[in-house]
Amino acid sequence: MRRVGVLSLQGDVGEHVAILESLDVDVVKVRTPEHLESVEALIVPGGESTTIAHLLLTSGLKDELGARIKDGLPVFGTCAGLILLSTEVLDGRSDQWSYAALALSVRRNGYGRQIASFESPLHVKGLGEVAGVFIRAPKIEHVDESVEVLASYDHGDGAHPVLVRQGLVWGASFHPELAHDARVHGLFLDSI
């Protein structure tokens, strides 16, 4: 049985845990470097990216997770998790940092604030149609040619990638854990 961690410092932890358990995965709630050592893949959930970044520092996980990502740990970041994995945060705070594990530029809340949240069907390469739940979602503004785009969405300003992967690192602007559909998580797990 696969042992997959969910970063459990802040955000949509319970929803990701439930989806992974429905896929018959042994789930570890990662709160310490010791928890991180025991997993073969990690989900970095949505939440508030600067808060999660601060909690990664105070928990002692920041450097450990960075080293594991560099060593090839499969990671899937959703919403705030995507921001933390991106190379460039276009409108981040002056003290905001990221792991630069996905060669892309992202804009925080690029699809609007909380009141502008929405759902839209998305066509995902290899899956077909899935529900895209966008809540204060980051907008991917630019991707390097090394990044594979698995789904895009046009919010009236041209199509932007919303599900991407670069090697074993995946990112989603939307919240697949809120759609009550395990297929996106399953696609990630099948890739590792």
List the helices and strands and how they pair.
Blueprint: E1 3-7, H1 13-22, E2 26-30, H2 33-37, E3 41-44, H3 49-59, H4 61-70, E4 75-78, H5 80-85, E5 86-89, E6 102-107, E7 118-124, E8 128-134, E9 139-143, E10 148-154, E11 159-166, E12 169-172, H6 183-190
Parallel strand pairs: 1-2, 1-3, 3-4, 4-12, 5-6
Antiparallel strand pairs: 6-9, 7-8, 10-11, 11-12
Description:
It is a single chain. The chain is α/β, with parallel strands linked by helices. The protein has a single domain (3-190), classed as Class I glutamine amidotransferase (GATase) domain (Rossmann fold, 3-Layer(aba) Sandwich), CATH 3.40.50.880. The protein is built from six helices and twelve strands. Strands 2-1-3-4-12-11-10 form a seven-stranded mixed beta sheet. The radius of gyration is 15 Å and the shape is globular. It starts with a strand and ends with a helix.
Brief descriptors of the model:
192 residues, alpha/beta, Rossmann fold, seven-stranded mixed β-sheet, 12 strands, 26% helix
